[in-house]
Amino acid sequence: MWTRLRVSGAFLTVLLPFNVHGQTETGSFTDDPQDFVLWNAAYVEAAADRLYKSLHDKDLVWETVGNYAGHSAYLVLRGKTDTPELHETESDIQISMRGTATSVVGGNLVNAEKRPRKQQRGTAIEGGKHRQLVPGAIMHIPPGVSHQLIIGPDEPYLYLLIKIDEEPLL
Predict the structure, then answer these.
(1) Distance between CA atoms of 65 and 151, rounded to whole angstroms?
(2) CATH number of 2-164
(3) How far apart are CA 161 and CA 169, in angstroms?
(4) Is 105 in contact with 132 (CB distance < 8 Å)?
(5) Model pTM?
């Protein structure tokens, strides 16, 4: 477990909006491995600022960080509580960056309705566990698990969302 925490901490250091060891470049360079990309702290900070400026009274706004075969990464800013959902085949990894939220995970999706891309949406979650999320928290949601983010009034919540085994976008 300790090794995981150290690796996660190093991962967060690159992704959270801090000055990371003088990094100033974003993208790939000619001597990098094929398909390697680094999104440095300045990129993440600028993307977060764009999202905050565009949120207004919307439920959420997002910016695609990268789409790849079977996985994607998004910066997501939620201004309001989301609809309970579950993904039949996708896993989500969420890394909290700014603000706080309450995650409801597990239990049963009430009034589940099938949606495109092997997803379900419902009206509530019965029997789910509530967890407080603060900047730096990392959460893994496996396929088939109901989940919802509860957002407090006047406090948007920013997180990095990594979708694994993502269903193709239609």
Answers:
(1) 23
(2) 2.60.120.10
(3) 16
(4) no
(5) 0.81
